[in-house]
């Protein structure tokens, strides 16, 4: 059938095109990251352009379905992996990532960094951060809950959409948030919140869509989500509910792989990533806070970071050892 | 196309010697080609599981995490899938009968529409359904404004899953049932009409015997679709209580990197599905009917039954079409055309269409070879020369479903590891893996559509073809292919659209340079860009409908060539 031939011809043409683009003389720095970071509207393309100006190299962002997916991909590929850097892991999987023994110490100067919580690691470079928060529509909800207790006390009519901690970063963040904020009371509070949970989705995007469609009153997301709607859509009705016990911090990390043959270039890239030039790209592409105070300040309409005393985090080791238990307890408490 | 004298020549030489004997025995090339596919599918699955277990050797494993939870998963998934099958079949049968007995304009288009939902990414359909039935959906909004009455029901939970599955699979079932009804011979219809059968008697004596043989295979297909459908379950499920194996596997692969457990989970899902599926794969077509499928019925319903059927069809149509309308409606905005002109979009469109054409061709070839083998078996039974027909049928039936019972993530992982073992670049092989995976994924639906036709023909023409001493190729060339073109066209469209909508296996292979339409949509969804996602969703839907309407025509044009 000629139809098939056309298809095959087009396909062969397509794959040669892809491989031709990859063949170049300059060294290539390959960065595995999550899809949204590498996407055309993510920070990837601008960072690539900015770094390539001075490095005499080619930066190649490879997007996986998630940051943990990027890590697993490199892990499966073993020492033969093309990746030099894994970018986008966060503090909740840092311990797990460290245990893989895939990463090597970096030599990036981090003295200019200002983080809301203390974070130190010889292997990972923090490059942005955000706070988990419930986002609501202020045109529909006048008085959002201001604590987990208030959320638990709300009537069943009030529905929240959250994510599965086993498959989603914010989902896991919520479980850790409750642990950091409430500790022993966590189970009891989860049981009280259970009737308000509309659904537990696999990923962030499904639950956020449910919220935007009006199916849920609140969705677990980031404090910077409203900034996106304000700046990119000029829509100011979405707000993040401020919880008095504080908000859990998510710090995004990048690490250099032991197997990389471009370690110096990789260090140079990470240095660029946390420089003024690199950091100024982050807020309106990744919708997270930069790790250094920007010379020109945050873009207009962007939220300001929370004060230090409202920032919660559990250290990597506690998270690494207890995550499984926290997740099991969470599911047991919400009656699943 | 070969010209007639040539093919006549060829057949003469084929008839000359040893093949004559081969035609009498079930062991011939037609049968062997089917066995080869069986072998190929199982070898692939085995290889996938093997490389994963092999890769897991150096990794820690925690089998105790395979807790009692798995039995819970198994029970929930089974209940959900069984109920989905029940509702889908009921809806499918009644819709097909109504559609068949009523004559109306645009019937062709209605039939083309019917498979559209099934092959869309489930998340699109789920959001379409929510736009109608959800809290902020049309129904509740209308009821609030018109009657000042708040309908207090929630679509989340088992109800939502069943609603969605019935919508998707019910329409697919209706499409297949309709095809069977449409090939009822005119003589039978005329006889029924002259006997003045009541609408109910007509169903019992004319229609039910036609529909019945298709039920086991279809039920098995739908069961598997629902058992393994996870995106929908996770979105509308209301929580992990209704979760499936897929989440457990996700946890094993991504979170714990416990590949042993992932392989074990995949194997148990496969095993469980096979236990349920294998008896069904044994289904046997008893129907003898061969007719020319026409869209206008010579014995249309009249009187009260006409009204009843019309109302039934309208209700089903409203239920089925409103979510689709909602998807289109969300995309109608000034942003649509500029978005379609974007390079990213055009590239993704090109990639999607190319992959879909190739994998649809592959689906058609695989489905045809399997159907030919089944026909051969049927013929041997008819001629009384079959050995172990039940066992053979089972062996030929199992691979159709086996692939579907494999979780996409495990397949992706397995293919990824195989690629690594062969020292191929994962980036350049990704496309081929996607094509193969899509083709195999569409195979259950494709076989459900194609095999009955081939078996029917073998049943009908088995003895005739033997008395004419026709070779296997001749039977295919002059009987099976010409009389199954309609189904073949539908199978191609199924494979094509299935591939258009799939995202499953490629995640590990992905790069930014390569994207398909569903991917573009998921990316947009993951970056606050729900408007872009809505545009892609609507375009996908339009493409799917267009394919179901246009592609089958390709197979009819050459009829007289």
UniProtKB/TrEMBL annotation, chain A:
Biological process per Gene Ontology, one example term: thiamine transport
Signal sequence span is 1-20
The record's annotation in Pfam families points to: SBP_bac_1
- InterPro entries (alphabetical): SBP, ThiB, ThiB-like
Tell me the GO molecular function terms. Answer: thiamine binding; thiamine pyrophosphate binding
This protein's major location comes to: periplasm
| Highest rank taxon of the organism | Bacteria
Query: Does the entry feature the keyword Ribosomal protein, yes or no?
Result: no
Query: Where does the UniProt annotation locate this protein?
Result: Periplasm
Tell me which UniProt keywords the record has, alphabetically: Periplasm, Signal, Transport
Q: What does UniProt give as GO cellular component?
A: outer membrane-bounded periplasmic space
> What's this protein's family per the entry?
Belongs to the bacterial solute-binding protein 1 family.
UniProt protein name: Thiamine-binding periplasmic protein
Question: Source organism lineage?
Answer: Bacteria, Pseudomonadati, Pseudomonadota, Alphaproteobacteria, Hyphomicrobiales
Automatic annotation (TrEMBL), chain B:
- Keyword Hydrolase included in the entry's annotation: no
Q: Which UniProt keywords apply?
A: Cell membrane, Membrane, Transmembrane, Transmembrane helix, Transport
GO CC annotations, alphabetized: plasma membrane
* Membrane topology per record: Multi-pass membrane protein
CDD domains reported for this sequence: TM_PBP2 (cd06261)
Gene3D superfamilies assigned: MetI-like
Q: Which residue intervals define the domain ABC transmembrane type-1 in the entry?
A: 74-282, 349-552
Localization per Swiss-Prot or TrEMBL: Cell membrane
A GO biological process held by the record: transmembrane transport
- Asked if the Swiss-Prot or TrEMBL record annotates the protein with the keyword Cell membrane, the reply is yes
Q: Give the stretches traversing the membrane.
A: 35-57, 77-102, 109-133, 153-178, 218-241, 261-283, 307-328, 348-373, 394-418, 430-450, 488-510, 530-551
Under the heading SUPFAM superfamilies, the entry gives: MetI-like
Q: What is this protein called?
A: Thiamine transport system permease protein
């Amino acid at each position: 059938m000629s139809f098939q031939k056309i298809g095959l011809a087009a396909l062969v043409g397509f794959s040669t095109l892809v491989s031709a683009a990859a063949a170049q003389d300059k060294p290539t720095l390959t960065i595995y990251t999550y899809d949204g970071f590498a996407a055309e509207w993510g920070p990837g393309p601008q960072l690539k352009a900015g770094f390539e100006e001075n490095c005499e190299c080619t930066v190649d962002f490879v997007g996986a379905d998630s940051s943990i997916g990027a890590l697993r991909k490199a892990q499966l590929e073993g020492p033969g992996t093309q990746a030099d850097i894994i970018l986008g892991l966060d503090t909740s999987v840092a311990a797990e990532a460290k245990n893989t023994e895939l990463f090597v110490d970096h030599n990036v100067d981090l003295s200019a960094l200002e983080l809301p919580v203390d974070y130190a690691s010889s292997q990972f470079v923090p490059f942005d951060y955000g706070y988990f928060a419930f986002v609501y529509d202020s045109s529909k909800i006048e008085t959002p809950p201001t604590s987990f207790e208030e959320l638990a006390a709300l009537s069943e009519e009030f529905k929240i959409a959250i994510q599965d901690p086993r498959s989603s970063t914010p989902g896991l963040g919520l479980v850790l948030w409750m642990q950091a904020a409430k500790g022993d009371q966590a189970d009891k509070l989860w049981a009280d919140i259970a009737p308000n949970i509309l659904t537990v989705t696999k990923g962030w995007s499904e639950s956020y869509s449910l919220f935007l469609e009006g199916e849920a009153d609140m969705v677990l997301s980031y404090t910077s989500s409203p900034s996106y709607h304000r700046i990119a859509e000029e829509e100011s009705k979405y707000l993040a509910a401020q919880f008095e016990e504080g908000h859990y911090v998510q710090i995004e990390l990048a690490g250099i792989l032991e197997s990389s043959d471009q370690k110096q270039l990789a260090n140079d890239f990470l240095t660029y990533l946390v420089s003024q030039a690199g950091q100024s790209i982050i807020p309106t592409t990744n919708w997270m806070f930069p790790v250094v105070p920007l010379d020109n300040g945050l873009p207009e309409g962007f939220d300001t970071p929370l004060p230090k005393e409202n920032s919660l985090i559990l250290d990597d080791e506690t998270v690494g050892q207890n995550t499984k238990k926290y997740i099991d307890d969470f599911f047991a408490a919400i009656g699943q | 196309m070969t010209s007639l004298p040539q093919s006549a020549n060829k057949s003469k030489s084929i008839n000359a010697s040893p093949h004559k004997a081969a035609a009498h025995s079930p062991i011939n090339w037609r049968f062997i080609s089917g066995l080869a596919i069986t072998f190929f599918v199982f070898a692939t699955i085995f290889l996938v599981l093997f490389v994963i277990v092999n890769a897991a050797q150096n990794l820690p494993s925690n089998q105790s995490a395979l807790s009692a939870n798995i039995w819970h998963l198994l029970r929930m998934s089974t209940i959900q899938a069984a109920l989905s099958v029940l509702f889908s079949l009921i809806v499918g049968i009644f819709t097909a009968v109504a559609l068949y007995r009523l004559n109306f304009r645009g019937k062709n288009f209605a039939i083309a529409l019917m498979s559209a939902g099934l092959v869309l990414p489930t998340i699109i359909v789920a959001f379409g359904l929510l736009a109608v039935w959800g809290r902020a959906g049309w129904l509740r909004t209308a009821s609030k404004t018109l009657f000042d009455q708040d309908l207090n029901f929630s679509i989340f939970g088992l109800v939502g899953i069943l609603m969605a599955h019935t919508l998707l699979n019910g329409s697919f079932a209706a499409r297949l049932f309709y095809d069977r009804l449409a090939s009822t011979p005119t003589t039978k219809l005329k006889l029924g009409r002259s006997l003045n059968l009541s609408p109910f008697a007509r169903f019992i004596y004319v229609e039910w015997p036609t529909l019945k043989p298709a039920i086991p295979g279809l039920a098995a297909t739908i069961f598997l679709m629902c058992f393994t459908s996870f995106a929908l379950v996770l979105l509308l499920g209301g929580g992990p209580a209704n979760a499936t194996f897929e989440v457990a596997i996700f946890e094993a692969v991504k979170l714990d990197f416990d590949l042993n457990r992932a392989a074990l989970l995949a194997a148990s899902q496969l095993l469980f599905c096979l236990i349920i599926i294998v008896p069904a794969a044994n289904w046997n077509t008893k129907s003898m009917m061969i007719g020319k499928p026409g869209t206008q019925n010579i014995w249309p319903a009249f009187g009260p039954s006409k009204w009843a059927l019309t109302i039934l069809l309208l209700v089903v149509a409203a239920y089925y079409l409103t979510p689709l309308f909602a998807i289109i409606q969300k995309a109608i905005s000034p942003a649509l055309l500029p978005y379609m002109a974007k390079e990213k979009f055009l590239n993704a469109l090109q990639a999607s269409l190319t992959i879909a054409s190739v994998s649809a061709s592959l689906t058609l070839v695989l489905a045809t070879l399997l159907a030919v083998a089944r026909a051969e078996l049927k013929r041997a039974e008819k001629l009384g020369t079959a050995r172990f027909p039940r066992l053979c049928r089972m062996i030929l039936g199992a691979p159709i479903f086996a692939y579907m019972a494999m979780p996409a993530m495990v397949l992706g992982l397995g293919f990824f590891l195989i690629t690594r073992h062969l020292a191929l670049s994962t980036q350049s092989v990704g496309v081929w893996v996607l094509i193969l995976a899509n083709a195999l994924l569409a195979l259950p639906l494709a076989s459900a559509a194609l095999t009955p036709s081939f078996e029917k023909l073998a049943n009908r023409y088995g003895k005739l073809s033997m008395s004419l001493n026709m070779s296997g190729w001749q039977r295919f060339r002059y009987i099976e292919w010409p009389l199954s073109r309609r189904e073949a066209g539908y199978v191609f469209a199924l494979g094509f659209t299935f591939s258009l909508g799939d995202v499953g296996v490629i995640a590990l292979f992905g790069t930014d340079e390569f994207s398909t339409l569903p991917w573009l949509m998921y990316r947009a969804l993951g970056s606050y860009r729900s408007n872009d996602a809505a545009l892609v969703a609507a375009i996908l839907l339009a493409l799917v409908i267009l394919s179901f309407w246009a592609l089958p025509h390709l197979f009819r044009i050459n009829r007289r060539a």
